[in-house]
Amino acid sequence: MxxxxxxxRSSLDAMAWIAAYLALILVPMALLLVGPTPRPGGxxxxxxxxxxxxxxxxxxxxxxxxxxxxxATAPFGIDVVYYFHRYLxxxxxxFVLAHVAILYARYRPTVGSLDxxxxxxxxxxGWIALLAFLAVVGTSLLRKQLGIEYDRWRRWxxxxxxxxxxxAAVHVFAIGSYLEPRWKAxxxxxxxxxxxxxxxxVRAIRPWRLTRDPYRVTEVRREPGRSWxxxxxxxxxxxxxxxxxxxxxxxxxxxxxxxxxxxxxFSSTPTRPGAIEFTIKELGDFTRxxxxxxxxxxxxxxxxxxxxxxxxxxxxxxxxxxxxxxxxAPILSMLRALADRGDRRPIVLFYGNRRWDRIVARxxxxxxxxxxxxxxxxxxxxxPPEDWTxxxxxxxxxxxxxxxxxxxxxxxxxxxxxxxxxxxxxxNLRALGVPHARMHSEIFDLA
Length: 447
Hints:
Layout: H1 5-31, H2 43-65, H3 70-73, H4 78-106, H5 108-111, H6 121-141, H7 143-146, H8 150-175, H9 182-210, E1 215-223, E2 227-234, E3 247-252, E4 262-265, E5 276-281, E6 298-305, E7 319-324, H10 328-340, E8 347-353, H11 362-372, E9 375-381, E10 391-392, H12 397-403, E11 412-417, H13 419-431, E12 439-443
Parallel strand pairs: 7-8, 7-11, 8-9, 9-10, 11-12
Antiparallel strand pairs: 1-2, 1-6, 2-5, 3-4, 3-6
Helix pairs in contact: 1-2, 2-4, 2-8, 2-9, 4-6, 6-8, 8-9
């Protein structure tokens, strides 16, 4: 594992943020036991209440995980944080379900009837929270199977999450157990206000700040394989500061308040200032419209994000890039930067595509390999032409072993493409004995 100052600092930052997350859940729960507490109702009663409070704290902190705080996400990468958010939401829902199941299985007379006409206000708000959380998690896990369009899902996701959190907070304060004396209620009330404050920050204040730095589309360039490159220039220079390989949340044909931003990697390099570029493939509901964008249209750029970038690994003896399709976009950003900097470290690029005529930036890659970089490009085609003499199929372990140097375990690897390709590449790298710290992946699907 690399032991550079940057790596050590990143590890310490990661541990600090994980500790902060745990403290924000456990400390408020511990405070409930300070001073006077309700008379114990038995192990299962107290356990059910404990996991209920834990679930509320976890749900509230979900808003922090998706708030895109750059310092908090930097040690992990925002793609990892979003996956963490998804898994924690499922765990929090399991806690809520267990809370309800225990109380209704063992303390039915205490919690009352299931008939909505006879429920107390406190119990009714709890059921609203449970139904909202079920809808949030269910539609998140099954969005594609249900055919829910991404932008519509995001708006409903936020609405249901806010309703669920609000109903859960009302439920907890209306029940009032463990919230006496008043200072305990004040602590949890302050936490609830902070959670809702995050919503205001993300959906009101940050979009307002973006409106101060608009961009204009200056070029829409067709690329092979149903891909397009958008070139944007700031209306008021300079452009956003970013590092090669990072990504942005891009909003087109909508205001920053419309919740229609989408994550795309920079394919341009900050070594060529004045404009930024994104290379985007027609894959989903939004990206199918990219080709209809016209020069002069306004855009909003929330950036930079991500730690899939070479500057965090300046100690690497050599670099290996593994790309699938439009996963070449952030790798193009890094290769262009390396060329502009005169970097002469050995580089190998494994680039998987279906067909030869669908390879993005093919001529540019050949030019880089012929001059500016010590670059070897290995094209791998799953549907090659009849006269193809190169590698076929997918980027397998055998293909990698044929083209990697003898010191393969000492190199740093950057993988970007569809999820199945990433999984295959990571299996191959483990089989090669590459340390985990030298494997860097960019996950396409954040939702």
